[in-house]
């Protein structure tokens, strides 16, 4: 039994790091989550950015109200705005999703998720589990692929960052 558990644990660990990268879609109720990725971090970096698309296919409003991952001490929902040449980010309580609305998080635009207190560097090709919590739909477990920040689709923001 111990060998079997060790084999299963090894297979699970390999699937997290060596699985082919593909778009994953998760859902609960009328909320669909897709295109989930985080940007690779630099050695010593304690926080990282993550992005996802959220779609409410129902008629009633819902909201993303929390996010968490074992890859970080905490996750925060942020919004970004430009003030002159300075990029400003601030934490928000949630992201409202009206019925039929879709929100696509992208580097340098609007909303994003921040992984705070990274437990290990985020390396391109890794996959990290994330739980998104919605006011009505509840919790959605999904996987974020880690992409190189300089790679197209991984984004590389310009400007100065201030939280």
Automatic annotation (TrEMBL):
Residues 1-23 form the signal peptide. It comes from the Bacteria. Keywords: Signal. Transmembrane segments: none annotated. Gene3D superfamilies: PCu(A)C copper chaperone. The keyword Coiled coil does not apply. This is Copper chaperone PCu(A)C. It comes from Oxalicibacterium flavum. The lineage of its organism: Bacteria, Pseudomonadati, Pseudomonadota, Betaproteobacteria, Burkholderiales.
């Amino acid at each position: 039994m111990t060998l079997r558990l060790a084999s299963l644990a090894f297979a699970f660990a390999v699937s997290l790091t060596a699985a082919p990268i593909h778009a994953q879609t998760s859902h609960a109720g009328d909320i669909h989550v897709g295109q989930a990725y985080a940007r690779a971090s630099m050695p010593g970096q304690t926080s990282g950015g993550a992005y996802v698309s959220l779609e409410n296919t129902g008629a009633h409003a819902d909201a993303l109200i929390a996010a968490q991952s074992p890859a970080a001490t905490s996750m925060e929902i942020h919004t970004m705005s430009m003030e002159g040449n300075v990029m400003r980010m601030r934490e928000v309580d949630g992201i409202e999703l009206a019925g039929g609305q879709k929100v696509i998080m992208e580097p340098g635009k609007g909303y994003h998720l921040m992984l705070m207190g990274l437990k290990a560097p985020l390396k391109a090709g890794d996959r990290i589990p994330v739980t998104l919590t919605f006011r009505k739909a509840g919790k959605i477990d999904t996987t974020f692929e880690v992409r190189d920040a300089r790679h197209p689709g991984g984004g590389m923001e310009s400007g100065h960052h201030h939280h």
